[in-house]
Specification:
Two copies of one chain form a homodimer. By secondary structure, chain A is an alpha+beta fold. The first copy, chain A, folds into three domains: 75 residues, Arc Repressor Mutant, subunit A; 151 residues, Beta-Lactamase (2-Layer Sandwich), CATH 3.30.450.40; 97 residues, Heat-inducible transcription repressor hrca homolog, domain 3 (Enolase-like, domain 1, 2-Layer Sandwich). The first copy, chain A, is 47% helix and 17% strand. In chain A, strand 9 and strand 10 form a beta hairpin. Chain B binds a DNA duplex through helix 2 and helix 3. Chains A, B: This is Heat-inducible transcription repressor HrcA. Chains A, B: Negative regulator of class I heat shock genes (grpE-dnaK-dnaJ and groELS operons). Prevents heat-shock induction of these operons. Chains A, B: Belongs to the HrcA family.
Chain lengths: 338, 338
DNA sequence: TGCTGGCACTCGCCTGCGGTGAGTGCCAAG
DNA sequence: CTTGGCACTCACCGCAGGCGAGTGCCAGCA
């Protein structure tokens, strides 16, 4: 177990390195922090910390930089989430409040988060699977062609074209629309399959095929998890990444383009509370030199989706975590209001 | 006026520089191209070309690189759009054909374009203003709350929440829905205002206020040009930009994040035919070291939106233009089919 | 046992220096 | 108008030396 002072030294190293982006040495440490001991002592502590794998030196006779393990310890034990100041909170609220629809909410959130953290922001659209149905609309576009429009309580709209085997009469369609809505409106997605199971039986034989087609399209839309969308922003902040650019930045940009990767990334995070994945803790190789801070957000008490930021492992964790948490809270509020 | 050979020299310079990314000298030119003259002659020609502002040297005693003006002459007079090969065309078609909805079409297009050109691709969603109405749906969510859903012939869906002053009866709403659709379905957006002008008169006095509210919401949705969305992809290709990275890439990333900037960028392009904006021809400062190749695409003969790529001024213009044109054509086809 | 000051050592970074070579401009001759 | 020749420029490369931040180790002291 590390002594109290050694933890203090580690904290100082992380803070200084995050600030200066340069390896930090024993002398500089004692000057900038009131550790109450001499550089020589600090050197001994550093040697111990290095032995344990919390810090490393890029080359002999240079200062130390924290390792992923060092950051991990810092985040778990040494850092407190930095709360936003009152003016910041007000600014967040004002900025989000002006949103006119869901796209706008997500767009504003991503811009806000990128600006606050000066990092790349990722915001997942409120997920379908946990929300409830507000309305299902069926439109006849051609005799044997129906458009299904699904409206959720989060304001999201999903549409889908359905080709029927046989012409679908306007009255039957209206009938189906009415029955469908009376059964599923206000219900959770997960409950829908059970609720519509016996619907075809209520129809004439000649319509049952079409009804089933429509219902299965509806169910597909509901479970289609890969339809989950997200928005990213603040990629320009990647330029502040480090000196040895092209090599570091390229895989990150590539990873960010793959929605699948990002969704998995956010999905891996714990459902409640904040998750911080540091460097190699990220499964995706391209993100091995980045840290991901993510958290769930939702309109009620429950999380319906996640958001987070991607930045260099060398990031201001307390500040970033504070910003992420605050933004998640306010987005939840905004969604609950609308 | 420049002599035939000098134009030939300029073409050779552009081609070599695009290939090697290094200033090209007189000797290398005569070796790689069959100009039929000696290096000394080429030197004279180069001096003349520099005098006219078509090429420049980064520093004394280095080779020449084309200026924006040089590239301009190259694309206007010296380069032919390189047609795609048959296998490439097949690949494009196959790749786009699997799309299941509009989002997917746009997503596939942007990925395809980025991959083909190895540059940043930008695809605008089919624009509302030029398309036609397929269906208007009105849903009563609460007594005095209506959701308007607008479906276009390009498969795009726009929704909007409307707060009414007074409760809007279900039957009146159904009436409005029916009348509205009979008037505007299949009509162009531009014609809608004229077509619905006298609609309120057909309703009872107590409903007129609500009808007007709904209609003005519809009209707003129609003209709301800033609702235009677009998708970008291939940002990882920015890493191939040049050596002096951070400075070049940052403003480009920033510009790409501003949808407004991009929409304006595409909007400036000619309606038909391909547009190439080179370096400082781009109004936005951040894109002064990039070229933008854009073209309209559409489901019928008419363009409904634009797409294009953003890359370094030092790009393979014939190849890029060929790819952009081919992709635009096939997207048009796909949209027409669906 | 743990902290401290001292000391020799390492090694990345900066600077200055000459050599090299690609590329240029100019000129006189064909 | 083209061409070969020639002197000149200047970015780039490699090398050596000095500087300095930072380290590890050790002996002395509380």
């Amino acid at each position: 177990m590390l002594s109290e002072r050694r933890l203090e030294v580690l904290r100082a190293i992380v803070q200084d390195y995050v600030g200066t982006e340069e390896p930090v040495g024993s002398k500089a440490l004692t000057e900038r922090h009131r550790l109450g001991v001499s550089p020589a002592t600090v050197r001994n502590d550093m040697a111990a910390l290095e032995e344990e794998g919390y810090i490393a030196q890029p080359h002999t006779s240079a200062g130390r930089i924290p390792t992923d393990k060092g950051y991990r310890l810092f985040v778990d034990k040494l850092a407190a989430v930095k709360p936003m100041t009152a003016p910041e909170r007000r600014a967040i609220h004002n900025f989000l409040e002006g949103a006119v629809d869901l796209d706008d909410v997500v767009g504003r959130t991503v811009r806000l988060l990128a600006q606050l953290t000066r990092q790349v922001a990722v915001v997942q659209y409120p997920s379908l699977t946990r929300s409830t149905v507000r309305h299902v609309e069926l439109l006849s576009l051609a005799p044997a062609r129906v458009m299904l429009v699904l409206i959720t309580d989060t304001g999201r709209v999903e549409q889908r074209m359905i080709d029927c085997h046989a012409p679908f009469g306007e009255t039957s369609l209206a009938d189906l629309r009415a029955r469908l809505n009376s059964r599923v409106a206000g219900r959770r997605f997960a409950d829908v399959p059970r609720l519509v199971e016996d619907l075809p039986e209520a129809f004439d034989v000649e319509d049952r095929g079409n009804v089933s087609t429509v219902l299965s399209a509806l169910l597909e839309t509901l479970v289609e998890e890969n339809e989950e969308r997200l928005m990213i922003g603040g990629t320009a902040n990647l330029t502040r990444f480090g000196h040895d650019f092209p090599l570091t930045i390229r895989p990150v940009l590539e990873a960010l383009e793959e929605q699948v990767v990002l969704l998995k990334l956010l999905g891996e995070a714990k459902d409640s509370g904040m998750t911080v994945r540091i460097g190699h803790e990220n499964a995706h190789e391209g993100l091995n030199s980045t840290s991901v801070v993510s958290v769930g957000y939702g309109s009620g008490g429950e999380a319906v989706a996640k958001l987070g930021v991607v930045g260099p492992t060398r990031m201001d964790y307390p500040g970033t975590m504070g910003a992420v948490r605050a933004v998640a809270r306010y987005v939840g509020q905004i969604l609950a209001e609308s």
